[in-house]
Amino acid sequence: MTDQRRVAVWRDGAAVAVAADEPVVTAFDQGLGRGDGVFESIAVAGARAPHLDAHLTRMSRSAALLELTDPGEPVWRALLDCVLADWPADVEGVCRLFLTRGLGEGLPPTALALLAPVPAETVRQRSEGISVVSLGLGVPADFRAQAPWLLGGAKTLSYAVNMAALRHAHAVGADDVVLTSLEGRLLEGPTSTVVWAAGGTLHTPPLETGILPGTTVARLFQRAEDDGWPTASTPGTLEDLHAADAVWLLSGVRLAAVVHTLDGVPRGDAELTARVRALLAR
């Protein structure tokens, strides 16, 4: 099978395409050695990235929280155009934009783009739904908002805890995780935003908990409001999820994955998933 992975790096004022197996950073890059950087994962459909603007806005915000120099929208668009050149329109992809502190000490940051087909498992979870377990993050719900050094709301490269949570879920036979605060309030998934339907309203946890502001949930809520479906930022609990009409984990590439099992308890979706998917597909 032809390797469809693409890589582009910003060098000497231009986006440069490199082979997928070619090194693009040194071992001294602080993104590698310390996870000191930010990233975005962007859905590609029809050989284009229809929701790029929202991701670039969040990338800029994340960079500011880390006091990183964002090279700017023209750089990111050039990198994206580079990896999308001749990309097959019928292949759904995921593009990851990375920004690291590079070698530090006043030197330029590292900016690169990676593009690959969406994994089959992601497509399966999107279509079939997911089983989820709840895990505690170990911080109070309002603590990160008062502690900027914890980088709440930034999409950083420091995903070791997120990946460990997913590995734990897989070890116990689940697909994904809902993280909760020390006092049991809902936060987010390791790579997703939690949304539930109850009382005729779509709910999601408040950003004041330090969760990442989801681009997909923002798009869904705007379209739901336009469609007459009320939305709310709600400090929920696991009990709220168990009592909800439907629960989803939302992310940019997987979109709305309906939760069919929560902490071993099967649950339905009141036939609302089709409506959510239709809103996201507009």
Q: Can you walk through the features of this model?
A:
- With 282 residues, this protein is an alpha+beta fold.
- It is 28% helix and 27% strand.
- The protein has eight helices and 13 strands.
- The strands form two sheets. Strands 6, 7, 8, 9, 10, 11, 12 and 13 form an eight-stranded mixed beta sheet that branches.
- A hairpin with a 3-residue loop joins strand 11 (246-251) and strand 12 (255-262).
- The longest helix is centred in the first third of the chain and has 14 residues, at 52-65.
- The mean pLDDT is 96.
Topology (SSEs and partners):
Elements: E1 6-11, E2 14-18, H1 30-34, E3 37-44, H2 52-65, H3 73-84, E4 93-100, E5 110-117, H4 120-128, E6 130-136, H5 160-171, E7 176-180, E8 193-198, E9 201-204, H6 215-226, E10 231-233, H7 238-243, E11 246-251, E12 255-262, E13 265-266, H8 273-281
Parallel strand pairs: 6-7, 6-12, 9-10
Antiparallel strand pairs: 1-2, 1-5, 3-4, 4-5, 8-9, 8-11, 11-12, 12-13
Offer a concise description of the structure.
The chain is of the alpha+beta class and 282 residues long. It contains eight helices and 13 strands.
What fraction of residues sit in β-strands? 25-35%
Distance between the termini: 33 Å
- H/E element sequence: EEHEHHEEHEHEEEHEHEEEH
Helix tally equals 8
Low-confidence stretches: none
Q: Which outline best applies?
A: globular
Oligomer state of the chains in this structure:
single chain
Got a strand count? 13
**Structural class based on helices, strands and sheet pairing:** alpha+beta
Largest sheet: 8 strands, mixed
Mean pLDDT: 96
Rg to the nearest angstrom? 19 Å
- The helicity comes to 25-40%
